[in-house]
Design goal:
This protein has four helices and six strands. It is an alpha+beta fold and 184 residues long. The protein has a four-stranded antiparallel β-sheet, with helices on one face. Strands 1-2 form a two-stranded antiparallel sheet. It is elongated. The protein starts with a helix and ends with a helix.
Length: 184
């Protein structure tokens, strides 16, 4: 039965960490290198992450600089950024690519908050699904007479406690990201 609890905790924890990673790629009007995490550049026929091809730095609050180690890849990186969904046009000066993050409009901030809420709800659903799967496993154990009915009740309570704790973590992460987006 301990393996069921361990599995539940690991999966729920992973769900929260995936959510936090998704939140890091949502831009909030400030330069953040993690917006490039999903951008892949065709480098000698292999899709390669930008951060493995270039030095990425935050030059100012709203300017991100990308300096490729191999200057011949400059145009490929620029092309990949333009093809991605980050919505920022790169400025190429022949040595460095600059991404200037525009100030977010109020409408765009609200749209981003809706995205944050949707991601949080998806994470909550995933956590509840993990709880349901684990409770099903424990019920099968009870049917097979591996555990008692009292053990089943204790297990259900413990799984619910895990669920509540991780959903609270999801809510805190969503609230922090919304606050970050809505700051002017």
């Amino acid at each position: 039965m301990q393996t069921v609890f361990k599995t539940a905790e690991e999966k729920m924890s992973k769900t929260v960490s995936v959510l936090n990673h998704e939140y890091s790629s949502i831009r909030a009007g400030r330069a953040n290198a993690s917006v490039l995490d999903k951008v892949r550049v065709d480098y000698y026929g292999t899709p390669t992450p930008v951060n493995q091809m270039a030095a990425i730095a935050v030059a100012e609050a709203r300017i991100l600089t990308i300096q490729p180690w191999d200057t011949s890849t400059l145009h490929a990186i620029e092309k990949a950024i333009m093809a991605s969904e980050i919505g920022i046009n790169p400025q190429n000066d022949g040595r460095i690519i600059r991404l200037v993050f525009p100030q977010l409009t109020e409408e765009r901030r609200r749209d981003l908050c809706k995205d944050v809420k949707k991601l949080a709800e998806d994470a909550r659903i995933a956590i509840r699904s993990i709880r349901r799967d684990c409770i099903d496993k424990v019920k099968k154990m009870e049917k097979a007479s591996e555990i008692t009915e009292d053990d089943l009740k204790v297990a259900e309570k413990k799984l619910q406690d895990y669920t509540d704790r991780f959903i609270k973590d999801v809510d805190k992460a969503a609230e922090a990201k919304e606050k970050d987006i809505m700051e002017i």
